[in-house]
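Lab channel / #folding
Pinned by the channel admin:
"Please post every new chain as: sequence first, then the structure tokens as a reply. Keep commentary short and put observations after the output so the thread stays searchable."

First post following the new format, from NK:
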Amino acid sequence: MFVTSEAYPMIKTGGLADVSHSLTNALHDLGQDVRLVLPAYRSVLAKVEDLQLLGWLNLGADGDVRVVQAYHPDYKMPIWLIDAPSQFDREGNPYVNQEGIDWPDNPRRFTVFSRAAALLGVDALNLGWRPDVVHCNDWQSGLVPAFLSQEVNPPRRIYTVHNLAYDCQFDYAEFQALKLPPHWWSMEHAEFYGRFSLMKAGLVFSDWINTVSPTYSREICTAEYGYGYAGILQSYSYKLRGILNGIDMDTWDPARDSNLVASYSADDEKLSKAKRKNREALLKSLGATDAVASEDVPLVGSVGRLVSQKGIDLLLEAIPEVLQQTAVRFAVIGTGDKELERQLEDMVAQYPDRIFVYLGYSEEKAHLLEAGCDLFVMPSRYEPCGLNQLYSLRYGTIPVVRKTGGLADTVVDTSEATVADKTATGFVFEPATAEALVLALVRALETYGDKKTWSQLQRAGMAQDLSWEKSARTYLDLYQQQPAKAE
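Reply from TO:
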């Protein structure tokens, strides 16, 4: 049973949605009997089909909630929706309102969701289906392992940390209002510096913890990346693993991607011409004139949330310096911090023919950007796994990344040695500074002029097995292991 708060294409705010989609389908393809459990958001109910009432769950003080089974053409298994209209039937993002502010009742909303999911984990509806493993994801389902710990012979509990920085904390008054077991308010359980943490509940009560890359699993055990949880994670190192995400090789396939104006593959002699056509189409879609779009000038792209974590401020600081040093253009797609959005708009006004921006999210434009750009930049301060660098490798778009988390695990820096042994796939820098980013971008753009080396980098990246099947087999191995014990 895979418990998640978002799942592409039904509801998506970030990478968790992509993982929920791809991993569950990959597990199904490996012969596993999977159920996806998701809140019945208004937008989800509008996208699923074949709804069937499974029954009602009594949550005590939180009343009864309905459980509905549904199907979606992009999923190979039944989807179980927790239908609590007072919690999930509302406009806006799953976690924030239309002004971008956290829903004040998030603790209650996801406590209700977790109570219901835990009951499904012990077949409280007598459906004749009881999971061997309940796989939970991030703080939104952090209480599921906790509620299951109260059951006799509970299913095995796996808890995946996609981003430790988002943890959902609340005070003792809220803890009491939610009528959670009193002993959970303790250092040994989920009390966290005088507050209650849903993230800590998941860490403490799970049999196994994993993160979405090996490097991130080590980083979060340090003060720099641990967000206060480093000591806890060090004490649980015996049950902590890192499993690298994969990507959906069908959805992200430049040979069959319907969002592109020209398809291509790693073996295609016309790879560079196809990418140029996509670059022209991308720039036109972002407002460039025909004359500008048709010029053969390298294009650096970025897609994602415009927040400090992603190092967007470093990119904004680096762009003017790079523009002074070399002929290049930038294309940015994203939304987030309003001040960063304003700075981007100011930069477009200053460099109207060299910087192109789309403030928002467009799946179609994101695909076209991956195909149309020559370089993709990810200067993240931390990155649990990252998917865009994997999409970039798949699309022959050379990633420029900071050495952190999954970026460090997936991109091999270009050097004399790695070019010689043909392992180089991108450009890696380490200090989280604009100066280091400028040096990496200039180095990459200089290499762009060496067409033989550039083609080698593209084909090395495109040849990698980035599929979810490999990752799913690693998860399946973890599912089958007995709960870890402290030495």
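NK: The chain has two domains: 2-246+469-479, 271-464.
TO: also worth noting, The two ends are 29 Å apart (CA to CA).
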